[in-house]
Amino acid sequence: MLVAALVAVITVWAAPPASAAALTEVTDFGTNPSGLRMHLYVPDRVQSRPPVLLAVHYCTGSGPAMYSGTEFAQLADRYGFIVIYPSATRSGNCFDVSSAQALRRDGGSDPVGLMSMVRYVLQRYNGDASQVFVTGISSGAMMTNVMLANYPDVFAAGAVFAGVPDGCFATADGSGWNSACANGTVLKTPQEWGDIARSADPGYSGPRPRVQLWHGTADDTLRYPNFGEEIDQWTNVHGLSTTPTSTDYPQQNWTRTRYGDKVEAYSLQGAPHNLMASGMALRTIQFFGLDQGDTTTPPGDDSGCSVTYTVNAWNTGLTASITIANTGAAPISGWTLGFSLPAGQTITSGWGAEYQPKSGAVTATNVSYNGAIPVGGSVGIGLQAAHTGTAAAPATFTLNGTTCAAA
Known about the structure:
This protein is of the alpha/beta class. The chain has two domains: about 1-290, Alpha/Beta hydrolase fold, catalytic domain (Rossmann fold, 3-Layer(aba) Sandwich); about 305-405, Immunoglobulin-like. Helix content is about 20%, strand content about 25%. The chain is built from nine helices and 22 strands. It has a ten-stranded mixed beta sheet, sandwiched between helices. Strands 15-19-12-11-22 form a five-stranded mixed beta sheet, with no helix packed on it. A five-stranded antiparallel beta sheet has the order 16-17-14-20-21, with no helix packed on it. Helix 7 (about 190-200) packs across helix 8 (about 225-235). The chain is globular, with a radius of gyration of 22 Å.
């Protein structure tokens, strides 16, 4: 049974963000054929034209559970985007990814209601229509793939946590469960999967959304072969080879493969169906590019930071010791330091942070042990880089989107 199979796929690790902003329910948001409910999180500080993220829950879940059980609202506070948390209302609280109506653009069922929510937020909050994103877990992951296929002109990118390809769960008997797909036995060629996604909006010929995929090798609910089938589908949609253009290992038991700049896939060795853990949401926000946003700061805001960047250089290389100080009036929980390396400098190694990319506009993200910076406190990180002639320091730094003073 669908309810039993997809129950309890998320772990709560933190309370909702400490903020005056609160989750609110919205009614009368537009066409809603399946009676979905809509909850909305608008941070106290948003970008002047805020991006919009649709965050879709798992079976037996709800929008409020997705809000309290994931880090997306905390990241919205940090980067100034708006999050929509829909709730399914059918038995088992699973989203419709099986019916013919759901698997085509404006065909009816849940995707139509979800699109009404997105349009409502774009209009009501002067949202940036070029920065609309979708993510989901399990049933919500399957719906993420459906929304990317049905509305490729709406979504800039999506992130799929333990899902199946668009169209894989289709049934002809009215059932919401497809055992063959769940068990990973629906295997098709990349062309066949690509054709299924393209058939959801057959008249569309424009650019397609970028896709980030996550799957655990020990998933016993939506089994691991679905991960490879998703890669086949979205690489074909983008006209790419299924051979990765790069492979790396961001942390123990993780393998990340990239296919150009359009598809990114994380295989998590030994991870079960309930795979989402702290830090994954930040990687998704970074993949979307939402970590680069500048928020509108209200009068009296007392946030602040300073950065000390000390260089020790030699003929073709350098090391840089970096101190990040919290000079504001509130503690920092999780940070991203942004800066641009001068031309010719390339990071060869680093400590105290994850650095991406290795040259140009760089983002340094905290690691597990140094994400908290108390008021008046600081953290030290550093890097080693090769250079072709200049060992100068970056000109400016931002911390969580706020420009820092140079100490």
